[in-house]
Design brief:
Mean pLDDT of chain A: 89
Oligomer: homodimer
Order of helices and strands of chain A: HHEEHHHH
Shape of chain A: flat
Number of strands of chain A: 2
Largest sheet of chain A: 2 strands, antiparallel
Number of helices of chain A: 6
Low-confidence stretches of chain A: 116-125
Distance between the termini of chain A: 55 Å
Chain lengths: ~130, ~130
DNA sequence: GTAGAACCTGACGTTCACGTGAGAGACAAG
DNA sequence: CTTGTCTCTCACGTGAACGTCAGGTTCTAC
């Protein structure tokens, strides 16, 4: 398929797909006229890339991880890399949970019947 | 306290503190010469701001949320805002979990005794 | 074979949360 | 009163992941 169809099938912009290629994340065959052609498997690969971007991984990190994930590279270094990134994601989850719980506490307070709660009570939550 | 001490006590750069003020997140009294002076409570406020930044909230969003969180503003709109951001964080957590589980699956495979697993087995995980 | 859609390569623009000097003023210590 | 440290206000730089023209080429359909 060409780049436009890959874009619509993945929901990713054409510009983004070219950017992924520029970063070495997504290879493409070229037609005689220089147009990119992708195999059907590219759809899954783009989804994988998007998933890793969504987890706040940089292009560089994704570039390092992709061989481990989809090409089955299996060396001590690749395993260490995988674990390191997994742990980073875990830490991010913990931070997000902390922020969410903080907001939940405020929400609970603001919805409690004692809606006229004083500033002191709110500050007690800060710690 | 002055800006340098607040910076060391919070672990945030002086530049970042000035930026927070520029964004309306952190007010400061001024001495005769124009230097910023902060109350002790500013330490907690900076930590709160950092927590929200860590949850991928923008300056603008934090600006909208802060009155609800620490000034006890309690209107239907503020409650809706709080819930909306809480839900966004929840969604992010779900995405991070998905990425982490994906990496965990790869890690498990790469550490399994059948280390010579074929490419087919790996692709089966893609879904 | 020709119109129009899709695609190409630069290359500059954008947003965000700061980093990084530059040049000058403010303030505590001796 | 001077020295040294801290602080001030511009204001440009940065990195990441694209957005957005511009000007030209390739492909598809009639």
């Amino acid at each position: 398929m060409r780049i436009g169809e890959l874009a619509t099938q993945t929901g990713v912009s054409v510009r983004a797909l070219r950017y992924y290629e520029e970063q070495g994340l997504l290879a493409a065959a070229r037609s005689g006229g220089g147009q990119r052609h992708y195999p059907d498997s590219a759809v899954d690969r783009v989804h994988l890339i998007q998933m890793l971007y969504a987890a706040n991984l940089s292009s560089r990190t994704i570039l390092d991880l992709l061989p481990c994930v989809d090409a089955n590279v299996n060396t001590p270094e690749s395993r260490a890399l995988l674990r390191a990134e997994r742990d980073r994601i875990d830490q991010q989850i913990a931070q997000l949970r902390q922020a969410r719980d903080r907001l939940d506490a405020v929400i609970t307070l603001s919805e409690s019947p004692a809606s006229g709660c004083t500033r002191v009570e709110v500050d007690a939550l800060v710690s």
